Amino acid sequence: METESGNYLFDAGEGTSSSILRHKVDHKKMSTIFITHTHSDHLIGLFLLIQMMHLVRRKEKLDIYLPKEAISPVRNFLNTLYLFPEKLSFDLNFYRIKGGVFFEDRKLKVKAFLNSHLRENQKIIEEKMLKNRAESFCFEISLDNKKIIYSGDVGGLNDLAQILSDAEVLITECMHLDLFELLNLVKRYNIGSTIFTHIPSELEKYKEKIINQAKILRIKKFAFAYDGSIIRV
Predict the structure, then answer these.
(1) Which residue from 110, 112, 161, 168 could staple onto 192, CB 3.0 to 4.6 Å apart?
(2) What pTM did the predictor assign?
(3) What is the rounded CA–CA span in Å between residue 95 and residue 102?
């Protein structure tokens, strides 16, 4: 997300670094990264991104917000990769995501809502006495007096229904949801702009049906987001 005060990255899956290079995104303007949860397709690109920034001798500090359960493992893995904080060319700061407003600067405010995406793992966590906390978040982003919802991954439509009121923009995954029901939810809350991302390959088979249903429901602005898409809100 690009604003007047800088660039913000929400999640960092595989290919993040190559995409940044391919689309000529200025990493120096990227001040903050937000990670919704620790599935690899939302986190694994972070490590190569940090290495890339170090190799090009970035000097600007980088702040990373992520679930509490991820902070120590991420730090440990960076050490495993020999990306020691003492050797990096820039200051790297980790902060815990908390429910409610957890980040604010002069342009952007981010509020977190715990969702049910990882809850199905609770039995395994308890049986194996693991330290996992099943933390997965949706974000409410306030920018230029607009309310933007970024879903991350969710466990169901209820995770979104609780936070969509008065939202002007919805950026939502469509990997784990019934998309026709999702469109009905978008219509119910009269969302100004809706962007589908995290797109499963099988969706291509019925993509036109989704587009036609959005037209039937008279959803205001609707788009699929792909690598390199530029969407103005």
Answers:
(1) 168
(2) 0.95
(3) 9
